[in-house]
Amino acid sequence: MDSWERRLADAGCRITEPRRAIVRVLKEAEGPLTPDQVLEQGKAFHSTLGLVTVYRTLNLLTKLNLARLVHRRNGCHAYLLASPGHHHAVICRRCGRAIEFAGGEELNALVGRIEEETGYHIGGHLLQLFGVCPDCQKKIATGKE
Amino acid sequence: MDSWERRLADAGCRITEPRRAIVRVLKEAEGPLTPDQVLEQGKAFHSTLGLVTVYRTLNLLTKLNLARLVHRRNGCHAYLLASPGHHHAVICRRCGRAIEFAGGEELNALVGRIEEETGYHIGGHLLQLFGVCPDCQKKIATGKE
DNA sequence: CTGTAGTTGAAAATTATTTTCGATAACTAA
DNA sequence: TTAGTTATCGAAAATAATTTTCAACTACAG
Questions:
Q1: Which residues of B touch A120 (CB under 8 A)?
Q2: Cα–Cα distance measured from residue A103 to residue A56, given in angstroms and rounded to the nearest whole number
Q3: Which residue of B has its CA nearest to A119?
Q4: How confident is residue B75, by pLDDT bands cut at 50, 70 and 90?
Q5: Protein footprint on strand C: which nucleotides are under 7 Å from a CB?
Q6: Taking a C-beta distance cutoff of 8 angstroms, is the pair B82, A65 a contact?
C-alpha cells in the first residue's frame, strides 16, 4: 500500500478510484496544478471524474499534509504533491516546474528576530520562492525555444 | 502633498476623491482589509464610493508599492498600506493587526542556500508570518475578552 | 476656462469555489 | 462472501470574488 493510502486510511478515509486518479496526476506532475488541470489530466485515469471531487480531494490531501497549496498571482490556487519534511516551494516562472525545500536554520533565525522586533508570538508562515529553473536558464542562455 | 499623492502624480495618475478616501481607510486601519471592508469604511469619506473603484485602486496602489497584498486562508485577498522598505507582514491570528518587516540577512541567506541546493535562480518571494500580537497575548494570559 | 484623457460606478459577465442531494461504492462485521 | 452502513461521488445550482463594459464625470494641462 502506498504511503498516501495508509495516511488516508489512518484518517478514516476511503481509498477510491477518483482519489487514486488525482494522486496519480499529482505524482506525474512536475509543477503545481490547478483544480482544472487536475480534472483534465485525471479523466485519463478515471473518466467520470468531476471537478467537485477534485476540489474536495485536494482539500483533503492538503489537510493531511500530503499536498501543498501554492498561491498564484491571478488568485487561483494550485496544488503540489508534498515532499515529506519539506514545506515550501520554489517555482519556475517560465515552465512552472517546482521543487520543495525546508525552511532550515535561516528561517528559524528570521522568525526569532521578528518575534523580538515585534513582540508577536509567531506560529506559522507562508513562504514561496519564484525564479528560473536550471533547464530554463540554459534555454534562455542559448536562445532556444 | 502627501507622499502617496506624489507617487500617484509621478506615475501620471490623478488624485481623486475616491482614491483619497481609500488611502485614508488604509491609513487608519491596523490590519489588512478586504476590498469589501475598504468599501464599507470608505463610504464614510466618499459616500458614492463603488466596489469596482476599490478593486482598481487597491491594484494600482499595490503596483506602485504603496500597498501590499496579503494572502488569506479562504482565498480572498486583503490589503495593507505599505511601510517603506518593509515588504513582508506578520499578522495576528486573533485580532488581525499587522506589522511589516524586512526580510534581512536571514532571508538572503535562505535564498542563497536554496539557489545552491536547487540550481534555481531566484528572483522573487512571497513571505507572510502568522502569530499572536502582544496585546492578544496579554488578553489570552489574563483570560480577558 | 475649456478640452481631453484618466477615472468613476452600476450592471453584467466571468471565474473560482462551495453546497445540495440523490445515487454509488468502499469498507466492516457477520 | 454478503449484506449494511456510511463515506464519497458527480451534476446542477448557489455563492463569492473579481473583471469587463460603457456612458457619465472630473482632474488637470494648456
A1: 90, 92, 99, 129, 131-134
A2: 28
A3: B134
A4: confident
A5: 6-11, 15-20, 25-27
A6: no
Cell of B37: 471592508
Instruction: Please tell me the predicted confidence (pLDDT) of residue A86.
Output: 83
| Residue A127 · residue B125 · CB < 8 Å | yes
Determine the pLDDT at residue A1. Answer: 62
Q: How many CB atoms lie within 10 A of CB B136?
A: 19
Q: Which of A61, A15, A53 is nearest to A35 (CA)?
A: A53
Residue-wise pLDDT for B17-56, tens only, equals 999 999 999 999 999 999 999 999 999 999 999 999 999 9
Task: Convert B57-95 to b/e letters by CB count within 10 Å (16 or more is b).
Answer: bbebbbeeebbbbbbeeeeebbbbbbeeeebbbbbbeee
Partner residue facing A92 (CB), from B103, B120, B137: B120
Listed residue (A51, A52, A90) closest to A70, CA to CA: A90
Percent of chain A with pLDDT over 90: 90
Give the 3-state secondary structure of residue A2: coil
Lowest mean pLDDT among A104-108, A129-133, B109-113, B141-145: B141-145
Pick from A11-25, A33-47, A76-90: least confident? A76-90
Pairing status of strand B121-132 against strand B88-92: parallel
Q: Which whole-number Å values give the CA distances from B6 to A21, B11, B14, B66, in the listed order?
A: 54, 8, 10, 11
Residue A128 Cα distances to A83, A133, B41, angstroms: 15, 14, 32
